[in-house]
Structure formats: structure tokens, C-alpha cells
Task: structure prediction
Amino acid sequence: MPGKWARRHLSPLSEFQRGLIIGMKTACLSTHRVAGQVDRSECAVINCWEQWTREVTHVRKTGSGATRKTKRREDRSIVRQALVDPTVNRSTIRADVGVAIVPQTISTHLAEENLKSKRPFRALPLTPEHRQLRLQW
Result:
């Protein structure tokens, strides 16, 4: 099954897996053998064990994430512009907000509000009746 290895190795360790790793490393098993038993990379086993020896805990830390570049007021302005004119593009919104942000930030804010991009039609969609009349003409 292609892609299974990548998904498995990028997902975070569960509490159970962390406990297994700590138990096996405490029993003096090698990192290579523990990684094979838990079906994870050796790097993940090493990181888990180092955290245990350093902090005496195996609880996964929650990441703080990147700091937001826009304030709530600017977020509302982005959403308001997208609601007023659904065909407005990201560069126009960025210029109106007045904050140095990348277009992906605007897309992220709109996605948080469950708004999707809308593009103007290149041509009006024709109904079957319109098609028939056009062919007759």
C-alpha cells in the first residue's frame, strides 16, 4: 500500500506507544529493536526516550504554533470583504487590510470561517433549452 509508511511515520506517537517505548528501553532493548516492535522510526524512539530521561514524563507537548500576523479586527475585515464581494481576489484583500501577510494567510482565515473561493464565470452556463435554441438559430 503506497503512502502507508509516510503516514505512519508522520503521525504522532500515541500514549500507548510512548509507554511501550519507555518500557522496552528501560528493559535495555536496543533502539533498533524497539523501533521494529513499535513500528516507528528509530528517530521517534530516540526522541521519546530522550524526553523521558530529560523530563521524566512521556506526555506529548502541545505546540504553540506560529504567532498570528493579523489581529481579530483584521481577520473580521478579511472575512467581511470576502462576504461582500465573493469574486474578490487575495491580493486585493491583502492591499485593503494593510498588513504585510502572504496570500495563504488570507486563504487560511477564510477557511476558518468555512468560506471558499468563488471565481466569476467565464461564460454563463446554458440550460438544455438555451442550447436547443442556439442550435436552431
